[in-house]
Predict the 3D structure of the following.
Amino acid sequence: MVRDRMTGMPRLMAAVVVVVALCATAVPAFGAPASSGSFTKQLSAKQAQVDELNKKLDELDDQAEIAAEEYNLATDQLAQTTAKLDVAQNDLNNTRAALVIQDAILSKRVASIYRDGNLAAVSTLLESQSVGDFISRFKFLNAVGVADANKAAGLKSQRDLMESQFAELQAAQAKSQELSFELKAREVEVQLRIDEQQALLDSAEADVREMLESEAAKRQGVSQTLLNDVLAGANKAGIVATPGTPVETALAYAGVPYIWGGATPSGFDCSGLILYVFNQHGVTLPHYSGYQFLRGQKIPVSQIQPNDVVFFGSPVHHVGMYIGGGYFIHAPKRNDVVKISKLADRSDIAGVRRYSWTTRTAPIKGVQSSTASALRGVR
């Protein structure tokens, strides 16, 4: 995700703000200026504190997103396990019903033999017209008995196998549910740590926080300007929203809030946005960036084209769509929205994938925003 806070403040800008703060507090009461060495030491210590806090915040942001994507993985695995469990339960019920019927048939055969003895079989043999006929009839009677026994044994074996598989699936389901709970707890824990660190940064570095907020607003303005250019048809940055392409579809969701685990226009996380967009172009994807990374054609970063999907992190935990001109659209993080960012700002690109998508002919799903209306006007 592209940070809206700067991970490394330009030291000149930071110095200007810090100098103002220090000048207001560091001048001795008798009016004599602080020594140059003391001033430099205080400035260096303050900047080092800012850098360290920003580093911790970046690390916690990554941990939060990894936790969110791992939760998506657990949710996907749980859904698959539940579907297999339903199939296994249905097959097991059918097998049990067939076994009951077969047992009833065999029980009747046993009761008939007990009641009538082997007279029927003997009668069948005595009616033989020749030795060859006798042998044929004997083999037939034996085969019937063996077939019934084999069928019953086969059904019992199948029932035992199905029950074993069912037990395994139940265990897998319990494990997936436990994993989902643990990952949710982890995500909450990491978010609390982020909030704690953010509060520490806000309290200790109020002047720097103002710089961070100013820079965040500037970046947001750049993203909005790019989007406005695209919608106006100016395409100054080389971004072209060709009608019916995934790029056009994705741009329609610009401004939709980031929601952890979201995969609808009410809110997206990074893999949820890619899933929802490409679903409208004939591509079915799982709600997990790691699995999405395993799909499609591998493309060198140097050959990336609009509509390609770019992945970030090791392990992969973030994803966005390349839209041309060195930019990509993505759902970055909490307290943010789907937006355009510069690909060059990321140093953790894991790879690029190209999916075999089809042109969208239907209206963009679930969007009534001004962005979507403007995109329709671009057509």
User: Anything to note?
Assistant: The two ends are 30 Å apart (CA to CA).
